[in-house]
Amino acid sequence: MGELVRETYRYRELIWALALKELRVRYKRSVLGFVWALLNPLLMMLVLTVVFGTLMRFTIPHYSIFLLSMLLPWTFFSQGLAYSVESIVGNGELLKKVRVATLVFPVAAVISNIINFLLSLIPLMLLIVVLRFPLYWTWVYLPIPMLGLFFFTLGVAFFFATINVYYRDVSHIIQIILSAWFYFSPVIYSLDFIPAKYHWLFRMNPMLYVLNGFRLSIYYGLLPSKPSMAMSLACGFLALMIGFMIFRRYEKSFVYYV
Amino acid sequence: MSEDCCIEFEDVVQRFRRIKERPDTLREVFAKIRHYRSNYQVFEALKHVSFRVSQGQMVGIIGRNGSGKSTVLKLAAGVYRPTSGRVLVKGTIAPLIELGAGFHHELTGRENILLNGLLLGLTKKQVKQREERIVEFAELGDFIDSPVKQYSSGMYMRLAFSVAIEVDPDILIIDEILSVGDLGFREKCFDRILAFKAAGKTIFLVTHDARTVQQYCDRALLLHTGVLVADGAPDEVIQRYEQILGTRAPAPQVATVVKG
After folding, report:
1. How many domains does chain A have?
2. Which end of chain B is flanked by fewer CB atoms within 10 Å, N or C?
C-alpha cells in the first residue's frame, strides 16, 4: 500500500494529464464541450424527476432526490470501472514501447470519472433548490463517503483491469455484473422495502456501506453514525488493498499479454 | 560494471510464449482444461546474448526481420525483463521506438507534447521549458494547436522525434524510424543525433540499412535468429550480414556463379 501512495505521488503529473486527456477527448468535437459534464446529469435528473414525480408515484417523498443521492455515486462507480477495466489493454501498445508505471492508467481512469461525479453534484444542488427540497448542512460530511467510494472503486478497478489483461471476457461480463450489483444495492429502493429475513443477505454487499453515507447526508439530512463511516472507509481500504495486491502480483507480465 | 560501461547484457535469454492456441476467452480455457493440452509454445527470441557498450559509443544493431533486434532494444529500455541473465543500464534512457506511441489523435500537438513528455519521464515544468524548442524543431507552425489526426505522417513523425530527442537522456534508442520524413528533416535528425553523440552520450541504432551503420556507427552488432553472431567494426559486421542475407536468398549468387 505504501508503494501505491508513493508511485501515485511520483507520477501525479502524468496521472493528472491522463485523466484530463480522457475528459478532454470525451467532450472534444462537441459544440458544448465541457458543459456536457453538467448538462448530461441535469437532463437525466429532469427525466427522472418527471417520471417519478408525476407519472409513477412512490410512497417516498421527493423520490428523485432519494434516488439521485445514490444513483450519482453509483454512476461514478460503474463508469469508473468500465473505463479502468480497459485501461491497461487499451494502452498496451504504449506499454510495449515505453517503460511506464502501469498503475497510472487505472488510477487516471478512476480520477477522470470522479471529476465527472463531482461536477454532477452541481446540477443536483440546483435541482434540490428548484424542487424546494432542503439543502442539508450534512453535505459537508460527503468527503468521507467519497473517500470510501473512491478507494473501493479503485480497488475493484485494479482487480478487474488485471484479469482483463489475461481474459478479455471480463470487459463483456463486467456490464452484467454491474447491472446485477446495481439491483442488489439499495439505489432505487430502500432496504426497508426488503423483508427483514433477507437483510442478512443484503448486508453482505459492501456497496451498501459505501453508498450509505451519500443518502443519509443528501436526502435524510442525517449525520452518518461513526460505525457507518468507519464501515464505508474500511470497505474502501480493504478493496483497495486486495485489488492493488493482485495488480502488483501480475503487473510485470502485462507487457507480454496486452 | 566498469566505470565507462553504460549498458551490459550478461548471458541474456528472452523467451516468449508464442501464441499458438493461447486461450483468449473463457470458453477456450474450458476447452483446454478438458482436453488437457498445453496451449503455448516457448519461443526463444534471444539466446545467451552478452555484450557491453561503453559510454559515448554509437552502436548499430543489424539483422534480418525477427532476428531479435527489437527485443534487445526493449530489454535495454526496460520494457521487457530477461527470462534469464542480466541487463544492466546506467543512466536515463529514452526510446525512439515507433515514434508517437503515446499520441492521442484528438489532442493538439501541444497537448500531445505535454502528455508524451510526461510519459517519457519529464516533469511538467521540464516539458514547458522545452516546448518552444520542440515546436521549432518539428517545423509545425500553426499546426501545433490542431489535433494531430490532421497531421500528415511526416508532421506526426517530426513532432514525435522532436519530443523524444528533447528528453535529453544519457542513452538514446532509435528503432527504424528515420525512414520517415523528407530528406531535409532526416538530415536535421541525424545532425541532432550526431550532436548527441558528440556530447558523449550513448546511442543504439537499429536499422536494415547497412549504409547508415557504416556511415555513423562506431560498432555494429549482428543478430541472427536470436544469436549474437558478430560484434565489431561496422565494415566487418556488415560483410557477415551480407553473407547471411546471401545464404537465405541464393538467387543472385547462382547467377554470378553461372556467369563466372
Report:
1. 1
2. C
Residue B139's domain comprises 58-83+92-259
Q: Read off the C-alpha cell for B117.
A: 513528455
Q: Does B101 sit within 8 Å of A100, measured CB to CB? A: no
Domain residues for the domain of A232 are: 2-256
Cα separation, A53 vs A68, in Å, equals: 13
User: Is B223 contained in some domain?
Assistant: yes
ipTM of this predicted structure: 0.83
User: Which runs of E-coded beta strand occur in B103-244?
Assistant: 171-175, 202-206, 219-224, 227-232
If interface means Cβ-Cβ distance under 8 Å, which residues of chain A face chain B?
13-14, 17-18, 21, 24-25, 28-29, 93-100, 167-169, 252, 255-256
Examine residue B9 and state whether it is found in any structural domain, yes or no.
Answer: no
Say yes or no for a CB contact (<8 Å) between A13 and B77: no
Instruction: List the single best residue of B119, B122, B129, B145 to mutate versus A (max A Cβ within 10 A).
Output: B119
**Inside any domain, residue B36:** no
Task: Give me the half-sphere count of Cα atoms (radius 13 Å) on the Cβ side of residue B251.
Answer: 1
CATH number of the domain encompassing residue B64: 3.40.50.300
**pTM here?**
0.86
